Amino acid sequence: MTGASEPTVTYKRVLLKISGEALMGDQGYGLHPPTVNRIAAEVKSVHDLGVEICMVIGGGNIFRGLQGSAQGMERATADYMGMLATVMNALAMQAALEAVGVFTRVISAIPMDTVCEPYIRRRAIRHLEKKRVCIFAAGTGNPYFTTDTAATLRANEMGCEAIFKGTKVDGVYDKDPKKHADAKRYDQVSYDEVLQKHLAVMDASAIALARDNSLPIIVFSLDEPGGFRGILSGRGTYTLVKG
């Protein structure tokens, strides 16, 4: 039975996008299990509110396709390697979520049936309806597309009401607040402003896809304890990107 004090949530189905670097903690590479477990606890706290959750996790803590390409590797090959890195991160997050009692499915755009499910849209929607967390891995399955674009694509396909972009800062700024004391934070900004001013939210393809489908993006700090749940309950500091 729902308790009288349980907060009313703003959205019923959301996609949480985080970078691979968010899983590193203070390390320079790879996975930091306490950090993975902390993020899993944040996701569980929102899941406990009855919110249906999808996730997309980058792979930059293991391999970044653009960096491989810059060092002379063929771009498509480098991007496929980056996609495989996202599968590794997704499996780590699945293990952490299931350790705290949240049923989770890793769904890959590149078929690898031994370790995860292939992407089938209607099956993924059914998982969400059954209150399972769906972690979409391997990007879109195509080179030249980032996990930001994959996140926006999957959020639209799943009928999500918003994308939550977890970052190191509490919103969108006109310049890096860690380097500039006079950086200005936006409470709300339009898709077109993000594109025109080259604000660091998501890449241009992802912003354009969100704009064309009127999908709001909420940028918040993943390092703030309870931040994800707080925003869904109508509190917290964040930037809303919308039309």
Describe the structure.
With 243 residues, the protein is of the alpha/beta class. The chain has one domain (13-242): 3-Layer(aba) Sandwich (Carbamate kinase), CATH 3.40.1160.10. It contains 8 helices and 11 strands. It has helices at 33-47, 65-70, 75-99, 121-129, 147-157, 191-197, 204-212, 227-232, and strands spanning 13-18, 52-57, 104-108, 117-118, 133-137, 162-167, 172-173, 185-186, 188-190, 217-221, 239-242. The strands form 2 sheets. It has a 9-stranded mixed beta sheet, with helices on both faces. Strands 7-8 form a two-stranded antiparallel ribbon. Helix 5 runs parallel beside helix 7 (204-212). The protein is globular. The termini are far apart. The mean pLDDT is 92.
Helix content: 25-40%
- For the largest beta sheet, what order do the strands appear in spatially? 4-3-5-2-1-6-10-11-9
Based on Cα principal axes, name the global outline.
Answer: globular
- For the record, the count of structural domains works out to 1
Distance N terminus to C terminus? 38 Å
Following the backbone from N to C, one meets helices and strands in this order, namely: EHEHHEEHEHEEEEHHEHE
Short précis:
The protein is an alpha/beta fold and 243 residues long. The protein is built from eight helices and eleven strands. The chain has a nine-stranded mixed sheet, with helices on both faces.
